[in-house]
Each structure stands twice: as structure tokens, then as C-alpha cells.
Amino acid sequence: MACILDRAFANQPALVAFLTCGDPDLPTTREIILAAIRGGADVIELGVPFSDPLADGPVIQRASERALKHNTSLRDVIEVAASIRREDAPRCREVGLVIFSYLNPLVQMGLEKFAAAAAAAGVDGVLATDMPVEESAEYRATMQRHGLAPIFLVAPTSTDERLRKIASVARGFIYAVSRTGVTGERQQLPEDAQKLVKRLRKFTKLPIAVGFGISSGEQVKAITGFADAAVVGSAIVKMIEQNPGHEAAVVEEFVRALKGKC
Amino acid sequence: MSTARGTTAKTAKAKTAKAAGTTKAVPGRFGMYGGRYVPETLMAALEELEAAYAAAKKDRPFQRELTELQQKFAGRPTPLFFAQRLTKHLGGAKIYLKREDLLHTGAHKINNCIGQALLARRMKKTRIIAETGAGQHGVATATVCALFGFECVVYMGEEDMRRQELNVFRMRLLGAEVRGVSSGSRTLKDAINEAMRDWVTNVRDTHYLLGSVLGAHPYPTMVRDFHRVIGREARAQILKAEGKLPTAILACVGGGSNAIGIFYDFLGDKKVKLIGVEAGGRSMKLGDHAARFLGGVPGVLQGTFSYVLQDAAGQVSLTHSVSAGLDYPSIGPEHAWLADIGRAVYVSASDAEALEALVLLARKEGIIAALESAHAVAELIKRAPKMKKSEVVIVNVSGRGDKDIGILRENLKLEGK
């Protein structure tokens, strides 16, 4: 499965699109993902809504609340992934699919059961926001046994020692957080991001994707000048929030414009 | 969906622990509970805090300053008071009250705040943030920030700001900024989420002064250590007063800081029963209470692995308690472990029982306890009459009830008395 991720980053630079599954509902989520794929997204991050999204800013918090109003579950997210893989449309088999979740829903499902189901659905990797590398031995082993890439975050506050540790166990790609803070759009890209990618590069050959706060084509262009991929999340989620009824069309156009800047 | 539920409690726990990868003994673990589950951005800050605390623990001048402030600023030691009329009224065990309500700011919370403020100064942080439920931790934090000259921001759920209005004013009077939190149930859990969002953003110059034995390592251990003084004093005081150890110690448990504080120095005294009292709320239905040991299953919330009130999909439940300080869906990981190994037992008292207990204590002893502490008194009312007159029981009166007057006026009809 991880080889799909390898290919997704092979046509560098890549665009990673995040959305919260179940916002506004699961059928629409599916349509938006297909639209993002048509628009040129190389990897889709399937956000699992959680009741206590402490790493997220207001936009993704609101999306989680909307998704939880009709009880969108981890199971549902896995089923969305499976339904994308069943599609005949171009690139639905080649796009990278990553589950992006807080740890507790995975723990409650059971890591083994989760990994088996996600792998069977065609998911390539998993990122658990609140799973630091120190606590992750068994988690990683379980994911990898099922062919899922355990993806980790690095942050501007990560020491070189931590970067080395993370790089040595991460698979698929490494998600570099552009700045300290929660998810959400920012006007300006911090210098932190480029410095972090430079520091991390010493320790890994894996693709490095930079995310948090990226919302414009200009920012994507700047990011992909020094990193392998840009992650766009809150900006997409905000579009979904602001365009009820025609979410997919708007996201497709947005993603196409961003991909054009890669 | 198959979850930890459905099998027996014990195997479910073991399975969930395995799922979280928590079977190895490492610092910050209490059995399989505890750990450090936070976004990467905070990891360096937690490592820094852990190192600073480890150094401070061995540093004589730090410990001397801590002790001096505990005594001269906060008013330690607190008395262990023999509750003569309440003992007579309940007709069983001899009742002693550990008077943490007499501390400066009105609750045990100041013990931890002094310790962490000293640490923040040591780490050269300039800004302190905190969450608060009942407002007692917020007031204690605002107090030490005024004392040390830190910028101070306190996050508080809007529901709690409403019901603990007096403490909101006290914090502002002390120079703190109180930021209302309108997400979720607008209570303690949501205030912690918001404080963590602030911390993840301003981590370089900000110390998060977490107010209970919750969160990621080293908080549960460090906060416990700052509150251990309660049990250390109580043990010496009861030996002096009675020449023997108590049969039981009762304390309320929200996150569990006052309980672990009074329990800890008695852990080795196997004959002393340690009893934690959770908030039973208005009913035993999920969402109506905060009794984690009755309805919770192990999971990860806000940095630690412990019992969590949640649904089968792992979404955290709303909780209810008349007492804002106990209104939280998880519990300190050390309590989870003490419950599993049977060293402490956890029971619950309903809103109504706590209110009744508060009135009884006020009228028999002239002490208006906080609604949180009144939950421990409620368990005392059930338990003391069944105990022998030769037995001794200690109740930790963790805070005073002035902050609760508004809620009490809404809930109690006292006309004619």
C-alpha cells in the first residue's frame, strides 16, 4: 500500500488535500474527494471527526461538530476510502489515501481491527495527531503489519534529536508543521517552515509535506519550492462550509488552481 | 462495532491498553495508564518541563522557597479538625476534617500553583495560561501570577463562568484575563482544549499551569508531588491526635488532585481505606454524571490514557455535575491505576446528596464547604454510621463554599429556617 504513497510523491511536487469526513455528510464527502482527485490532488487526507480536536483551529473544529451531529465514525471514514477505491474514474486507484485522526477513536476500535479494516479498504497510511513517536512502538508495528504507513508530524519546536528519532521510524512521508499553533489559514508563511524542512532533510529521504496555514496558490508555490508537497486543509474545509450545495465543484476548481502552482 | 465493551471489564482494559501500546513500564506510567499523547509541537516543551522539574526536585533552594511560600503565603500547615458534633450526629466513626479550605484562595489548588509558578520562573517563561472549572484553580493561578509578575490568561467554559461568577471576578481583580470557551459542553474539558490550543501556539514563552493530576507526563506526577503535603501533614496530625492511623480517608475526585494529595502518603499503610468520591450528577445515564469508574472505559483524552466517559466510537461524552470542579469526563491516570489494583475504591454521590451534605456540615460544624468537597462529605454520611466508634475517618475538605453561594441559592430552599 505504501508504494501508492511513493508514487503519489514521485511526480513532485505534490498536493495533499485534507477534509473532515462527514462534513456536511458522507455522500457529499465522497463527491468532494472525487472532485479533489479530478482537480489533481495527489494525496487525500481523510479527517476523522473527534469531539475534542485540541490541535485544530475553529474551522476544523466546526467541521468536526457538523460531522458528529450525524455520528460520523471511524468505520464510516474507512468505508469512504473503500468507496473511492471502487470508483472507475481516473486516478482513484493511484491517489494516496491517508486517515488523519486523533488517537482515541483508533484505540476504541482496537488498533489491530482498525489496521486490518483500513488496509482492506485501500488506505495507504495513518496519521494520529496525538501519537508521539515515543509511545508508538506497538502502534507502528500494527500499522506496518497491515501495510499501512505510520506517518508522523514534526514541528518547528522539535529538537534535532527528535527529528532524527521521528525520521528513523516514519514511513510514507513526513508531515512538517509550518509553525507552532493549531490548524487554520494564515496570510504569511513563517520562516520556521523552511528552516524545519532543511533540518529534517538531514535525517530522511522520505518526502516532506508542509502543512498548517496554507491556503493560497502563492503559498503552495513557495512551499513546493523547498518541500516535496504542500498540505491544504482548513482552506478546503472553509470552502465546504461556505458553499453548501455545490461543495464539490468549488473544491475541484480550488484544488486545480493550487495544483497548477505546484 | 466491536469495542472494548462486550468482553469482561478486565480483558477489555488489557486489550485497550495493548491497543494504545501502553504495556511497558516507563516514567509517567501508572500501570498501563498515563503516558504522553500530545501533538509533536508540545513534545519539546513537555521534555523541558520534565527536566526542569527533575532538577528542581533535587534543588535545595527551590524546595526551601516552595516550603516557605506554602507556609507564609498560602498558610500551611492546614489544621486537622475533630468534628465533634458531626461525629455525634452520625453516631459512628470519629470524624476529622483536613481543612484545605482554610488555605489562601480557598482551596488546595494553591499548593500546585506555587510549585509550578516557581518552575515557570526557573524555565524563564514570561506568560502563564491555565484552565479552570470551578474557578478555584483559576483564582490560585491568577494569585501566583500576581505574586510573581507573570502575564496570566485563564480559560473557562462559559457555563462555568455563569455558575462560578464570583471566581471570574476574583481572577479579573487579580489581573488575569479570563477567556470564555463556548465549545462542547462549555465546561472544564473544553477549557482544557482551548488552553492546549493556546499552548501549542505560544509554547516558546508560555507555561501551561495545568490544575489537576491530568494531562501528559510529567503533569500527573508533578501535580501530585505538589499536593503530597496534604497527606504528609494529615498523617502526622492524626498520629499525634489519635495515636493511630485512620480506618478510611475520603476525598472528592474530579481530575483527582486533592484526593491523590491526601492519599499518597498513606498508600503504604495498607489498612487505611482510600475512598474517592466522583460526581453522580442527576442520574446514571451517560451525559448526566461524571462517574468515570461507573460508565467509563480506558481511552486517550487530553494527553493521557485513563478512564474516559465516551461512546462506542470513541467520542467523548458530555458530563453533568452541580459541582463545576468535578464535571469532567476523564480522571487522573494514577487513580485509574489505584482503582484497578484495588488500593483505592471509587464511589459516587449525586447532586442532591452533595447539596444535603453541604448543609449538614454547615450546620453541625460551621463550615461551608465547596460543592466538590461536599461530595466527600456525602459519602461520609453513608459510611460513618456503619463504622465503629473506635474507628477514625478523615475527610479532605478541599475547598470552601463561598464561590458556590449562587448555585446554593438556586438549589436550596432555606426559608423559615
Description:
- The complex is a heterodimer of chains A (262) and B (417).
- Chain A is α/β, with parallel strands linked by helices.
- Helices cover 48% and strands 15% of the residues of chain A.
- Chain A is built from twelve helices and nine strands.
- Chain A has helices at 2-8, 26-39, 58-69, 74-86, 103-109, 111-121, 137-145, 160-169, 191-201, 217-224, 234-242, 247-260; strands at 14-20, 43-47, 96-101, 125-128, 149-150, 152-154, 174-177, 208-211, 229-232.
- A nine-stranded parallel sheet of chain A has the order 5-4-3-2-1-9-8-7-6.
- In chain A, helix 9 links the parallel strand 7 and strand 8.
- In chain A, helix 6 runs parallel beside helix 7.
- The longest helix of chain A is centred in the N-terminal third of the chain and has 14 residues, at 26-39.
- Chain A is globular.
- The model of chain A has no long low-confidence stretch (mean pLDDT 96).
- Chain B starts with 8 loop residues before the first helix and ends in a 6-residue tail after the last helix.
- In chain B, the strands form four sheets. Chain B has a six-stranded mixed sheet with strand order 3-4-14-9-10-13, sandwiched between helices. In chain B, strands 7-6-5-8 form a four-stranded parallel sheet, sandwiched between helices. A two-stranded antiparallel ribbon of chain B has the order 1-2.
- In chain B, helix 5 (110-122) packs parallel to helix 6, helix 10 (219-242) packs across helix 11 and helix 14 packs across helix 15 (371-383).
- The longest helix of chain B is centred in the middle third of the chain and has 24 residues, at 219-242.
- Mean pLDDT of chain B is 93; it is low at 1-10.
- Chain B has helices spanning 9-19, 40-58, 60-72, 84-90, 110-122, 136-148, 158-163, 165-173, 188-202, 219-242, 257-263, 292-295, 333-340, 351-365, 371-383, 405-411, and strands spanning 29-30, 33-34, 80-82, 94-99, 127-132, 151-157, 177-181, 206-208, 248-252, 273-281, 297-301, 304-308, 344-350, 392-397.
- Classes of the chains: A alpha/beta (262), B alpha/beta (417).
- Chains A and B meet through helix 3, helix 5, helix 6, helix 7 and strand 6 of A and helix 1, helix 2, helix 9 and strand 11 of B.
